[in-house]
Amino acid sequence: MKKILLLFVASTFAIGGAFAQIWNAKATAPATPKLIPDAQFSEKLNKVTPEKMSGLNGFTREGEDEVDYLKYMTYMPGDAEGAYIMNFHALFNGFPQTGKMAVGTVYDYRMVNSFAGNVITELNYWIGPGFSSLKYCIWDAMTQELLWSKNGGLTSGGTEGKSVTVGCDYEVEANRPIIVGYEFTFKDATVKLPIFDNGTVPMGFVVDMTQLGATNGFANLGSQLGVTFYVECLTEGPKSHPVNDVEVGQMFSSRAHAGGEYSSTIGITNWGKAPIYSITYSYFDGEKEVTSTVDNETGIPFLGKANMPYKATAPAVGGRYDVNLKIKSINGEEDGFAGYTITDYDGTVYDFKDNEASAGILSITKSAVRKVVVEEFTGMWCGWCPSGIVAMDKIEQAYPNDVAVICAHVGDSQSPDAMVDQSYAELSFGVGQYPSALLNRYTLLDPYYGTGNGIEKDVEAMRASACEARMGIASELSDDGKSVNVTAIVEPMMDLDVKDYSLTYVLTEDGVTGYEQTNYFAKEYGEISVDELPEDLKFLATAGPKYKPTFNDVSRLITGVGGIEGSFDNKVFTAGKKVMHNYTITLPTSIANIDNVSVTAILFDATSGEIVTAEKALIGESVFSTGLENVVVNNNVKISAEGGAIQVSGANGEVQVYTVAGQLVSNVSVNGTVSVPVFGAKGTYVVRVVTAEGVTVKKVML
Predict the structure, then answer these.
(1) What pLDDT is attached to residue 339?
(2) What's the whole-number mean pLDDT along residues 256-262?
(3) DSSP per-residue codes, 15-61
(4) CA 364, CA 469: separation in Å to the nearest integer?
(5) Rounded CA gap, 21 and 9, in Å?
(6) Which DSSP category does 512 fall into?
(7) I need a labelling partner for 547 at 20 to 30 A (CA). Which of 125, 312, 488, 593 fits?
(8) What is the pLDDT of residue 528?
(9) pLDDT digits (tens, 9 = 90+) for 270-291
């Protein structure tokens, strides 16, 4: 099964300077709720008007002791900017003018197990204008069975909406996640709902689609939008949020020089009442347990998220190792909630330890120069994307031999883009901010500013990191111009397990013109002053709201987002021994000028999804800029047509036979001499012989 590394959607936090709270970020208390004006939901971050909503102040309720805050079973984060009123109609096409609806938030295993045995005595909601026939509900989140309900009659939110407190007597059960929300009738397609930004909760906002005419029950919109439906649950009983409680998110696999120190990060979320000022952790380095402490001066608040840095030493002997990291203490005290155990319907027991994580470390005995792959996600409709266009050109000029840029355009009927590459959709689906860029599938960041000081710094850091292989690439166009035959050459720097790697290829086109790019930097928008712009972006102020740049590195096709299955079947990775991979790519019709098309061969670490290295060249060119000697025609290879078959001699490698239209007829191994039959089919064939010494191509006629 293909493994795709989507660090920005696969865990409870996101990496990259533009998307995560850094470890030393200032802790802030919840602010007053805010109101979104009648505009599209996507504009909420830039265009909001402060508006207090009584009763929705979460953990900042006045007049209550701090201990009482812990009795609220809620997801209101300590660093949230407050609640918003969302105009729900913008999210759906064909949203009915009137009808019924059910919405809620999911309290998952962690939350219900923290409060198991407590009774929810009070529910605090905000009711939108035009609501009626309200029914307050608690559903089983797994089965969607109704567990508790209370009719609200014809209570209406009036014309502005209002806060409502509802008595409740539901007892929280261990290992039974619940949905808390309400059903209602609405009379206007603009349904206003209380939500807040929250990337911590994976199912923070659910909607019963059966109420809207669908058949699939509750749908999770929270993970798509990064929001949570706002409801407070006041409980009574002995359980509460622990004072100290940290959840470890995804731990990143690393590469390091054998025996050398390396740095990495691990995502954490604070589920405890007390801010986190220090974490002590331990890990096994292959020989012994190592303990260390990381401090944070400002503190990470309740539900605050951070990327915690840690340092470790790679094993002295090269190879792959597992690093198991465990949180030993928080602020010098024991973790108050270390996880939970679930027994599945078939009796399988799952033990979730949320203060532990593991990842791989590849200890590299000899390193190659690493080629950095920058996959930028952009769109003609995206007003801030011109900065990415500038940045991609800039890093290619700064690192002409050490970076491979791929610009994947994204769009749909609402945000059209004539250069959309649907083959990249599987990867671009998880991108929530444009423009964005992935560096070697490891870091998601802003393509202009990077992690803060310009993407060039991030490219340089990735380029300097340890790399276990180097690559070369050669390609040629078929006679009919409909396909390209590609050979990637991989030279491992150390003995490796071939099953840990895969390859893919990307076609990109330079010099694409004639399309208009939306430009929010233009003075007509008034979003930003020209004086505030860096020098290389100042021209955008006078370029107009839409301008026509030259688009380079436009993605036209990727042969597999996570790698080609069986890329190295029957191969062996031995230090210093070159391994060939041959592939035929049918050219997509989107290509405007084949002379401007390049092929990028990408080597993946199949265990983590990270890009190891790559090589890029125009079709018809051979490039080995990462240190491989130039591959030239192997003059010792002899190719001829005899007796209705193709004869190859003087070679040790692979023989591929193609029709002139680019269709692969035969692919066989050769060690000395081989006869390749074509089963009596007369015509012209292209014979390609790939050896460690070079690539030989010849046309023969039978």
Answers:
(1) 84
(2) 89
(3) -STTTS-BTTPPP------EE--SS-GGGTTTS-EE---TT--GGG-
(4) 10
(5) 16
(6) B
(7) 593
(8) 86
(9) 888 888 999 999 887 667 788 9
Cβ proximity of 72 and 59 under 8 Å: yes
H or E stretch covering 222: helix 222-225
Locus of tokens 């500013």: 449
Measuring CA to CA, which residue among 455, 465, 440, 493 is closest to residue 602? 440
Name the residue among 429, 428, 481 with its Cα closest to residue 591.
481
| Residue pointed to by tokens 């909630």 | 337
Name the DSSP class of 628.
Answer: P
User: Higher pLDDT residue, 608 or 554?
Assistant: 554
- Look at the block and give the residue holding tokens 């592939």: 583
For residues 123 and 194, the answer to whether their CB atoms sit within 8 Å is: no
Helices 455-464 and 386-398: crossing angle in degrees, nearest 10, is: 40
Determine phi and psi for 114, rounding to 5 degrees: -70, -30
Tens of pLDDT, residue by residue over 96-155, are 677 888 999 999 888 899 899 999 998 988 888 888 889 999 999 988 899 999 998 766
How large is the average pLDDT for residues 18-25?
A: 29
Q: Which two tokens stand for residue 133?
A: 């026939």
Q: Which residues contact 600 (CB under 8 A, 6 or more apart)?
A: 373, 404, 406, 473, 505, 506, 508, 614, 615, 616
Q: Quote the pLDDT of residue 93.
A: 52
pLDDT category at 352 given cuts 50, 70, 90 is confident
For the four alpha carbons of 55, 61, 65 and 66, in that order, the dihedral sign comes to positive
For residue 586, the surrounding DSSP H or E stretch is strand 579-586
Q: How far is CA 218 from the centre of its chain?
A: 25
**Distance in angstroms (rounded) separating the CA atoms of residues 160 and 43:** 21
Residue 15 in this model has a pLDDT that exceeds 50: no
d(CA 368, CA 259): 17
Number of H helices, E strands in the chain: 6, 43
- Count of positions (residues) in the chain: 702
- Residue 237's region, left for phi above 0, alpha for psi from -120 to 50, else beta, is left
Lowest mean pLDDT among 294-303, 339-348, 381-390, 514-523: 339-348
Cross-strand partners of 206: 104, 220
Amino acid at 624: F
Least Cα distance to 231 among 270, 194, 197 occurs for 194
Q: Which of 432, 431, 440, 473 is nearest to 458 (CA)?
A: 440
**22 or 158: whose pLDDT is higher?**
158
C-alpha–C-alpha distance, residues 186 and 164, integer Å: 17
- Cβ burial of 629 (10 Å; 0-12, 13-18, 19+) is exposed
